[in-house]
């Protein structure tokens, strides 16, 4: 029987939809803004999708894994329980709890650690496992730059179900300085390479940053987008340097790592969160959402732009999405992915999606969900 360490960071991704660009040090603020935890439901989706039953789970108490396993009647043993809630009812777990739980699971001889979280959780897990125990991430965070994550919770279940205990690859463990990130500065750090159950189909690549000059391509894309902008339409401009080129051409300021609302070529909402967007959708009848995929990973939705939630997309309509990317970026990005958190909504996007990659130039790319 395969012994699986199973850890859930119940607060992972909490700051995404409310525009905090991460959750480190901001759990209480995220709750105050109306954030709702999604990591536990993603963990349950993973567990529900396992196609084998020869796993024995070692987990941590409460929503760190025990509650999710219990809800599905899956055989498990709780090997660690946090006492943090005794001092602060709102905060039930911490990074220290993750590390203590992980170390106990390693001591009890697990074959693999599976965790639901983001890059911060991956970093905490890796600080315990190093290159000795393989790890596999269920994507639940705001920013997921590391290469130890499956593309979706269901893909994580497929990887574990197909794993033979011997096939292993290396995945980068990366994290972002969230304070700098909230100020619009992307400051990434490589912490090391973890062992990962090998499956090139279902594991994501780590984010890649281009050091080539793609400015001309971005300007051509921007020229086309500005040309087709209509005065009766609200435009939600996503994060990144390609969308920044559109703002530059319009002569307006742009939140580099956030989402801005543009109407009649003027900013009507800066660094908006999910609730801001939903309020704007009640004011403006027509909307277009312009976003660019993460380099190499290929995620259009579900990584770093959780403000564009399944609720937002259901209200705006999937036809509101305009995907832009330079031809050079697409050469480095083998697959495109959408993970709205709602499998039914994901499937409505179909098997391909149009990507604008130049002035009046588009290419249809295969889409995975």
Automatic annotation (TrEMBL):
Keyword set, alphabetical order: Kinase, Transferase
Give a GO biological-process term.
NADP+ biosynthetic process
One MF term in the entry's GO annotations: NAD+ kinase activity
Q: Which InterPro entries match?
A: AcoX-like, ATP-NAD_kinase_N, NAD/diacylglycerol_kinase_sf, NADK, Put_ATP-NAD_kin
Domain of life, per UniProt, equals Archaea
What protein am I looking at? Answer: ATP-NAD kinase family protein
In its UniProt entry, the species of origin is given as Methanospirillum purgamenti
Taxonomic lineage: Archaea, Methanobacteriati, Methanobacteriota, Stenosarchaea group, Methanomicrobia
């Amino acid at each position: 029987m395969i012994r699986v360490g199973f850890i859930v960071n119940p607060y992972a991704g909490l700051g995404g939809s409310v525009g905090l660009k991460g959750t480190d040090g901001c759990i209480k603020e995220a709750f105050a803004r109306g954030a709702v935890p999604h990591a536990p439901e993603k963990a349950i989706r993973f567990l529900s999708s396992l196609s084998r039953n020869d796993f024995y789970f070692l987990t941590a108490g409460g929503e760190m894994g025990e509650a999710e396993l219990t809800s599905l009647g899956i055989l498990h043993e709780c090997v660690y329980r946090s006492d943090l809630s005794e001092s602060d009812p709102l905060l039930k777990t911490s990074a220290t709890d993750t590390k203590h739980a992980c170390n106990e699971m390693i001591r009890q001889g697990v074959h693999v650690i599976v965790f639901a979280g983001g890059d911060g959780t991956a970093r905490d897990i890796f600080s315990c496992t190093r290159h000795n125990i393989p790890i596999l991430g269920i994507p639940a965070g705001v920013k997921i730059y590391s290469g130890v994550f499956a593309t979706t919770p269901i893909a994580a279940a497929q990887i574990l179900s197909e794993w033979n205990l011997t096939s292993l690859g290396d995945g980068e463990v990366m994290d972002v300085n969230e304070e700098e990130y909230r100020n619009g500065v992307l400051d990434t750090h490589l912490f090391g390479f973890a062992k990962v159950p090998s499956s090139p189909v279902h594991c994501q690549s780590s984010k890649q940053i281009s050091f080539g000059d793609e400015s001309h391509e971005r300007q051509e894309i921007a020229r086309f987008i500005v040309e087709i902008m209509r005065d009766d339409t609200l435009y939600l401009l996503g994060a990144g340097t390609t969308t920044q080129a559109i703002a530059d051409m319009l002569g307006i300021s742009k939140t580099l790592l956030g989402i801005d609302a543009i109407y009649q070529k003027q900013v009507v909402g800066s660094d908006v969160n999910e609730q801001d967007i939903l309020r704007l959708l009640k004011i403006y009848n027509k909307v277009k959402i312009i976003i660019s995929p993460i380099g190499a990973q290929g995620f259009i939705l579900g990584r770093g732009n959780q403000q564009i939630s399944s609720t937002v997309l259901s209200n705006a309509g999937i036809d509101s999405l305009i995907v832009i990317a330079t031809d050079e970026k697409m050469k480095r990005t083998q697959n495109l992915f959408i993970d709205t958190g709602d499998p039914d909504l994901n499937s409505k996007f179909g098997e391909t999606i149009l990507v604008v990659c130049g002035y009046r130039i588009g290419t249809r790319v295969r889409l995975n969900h």
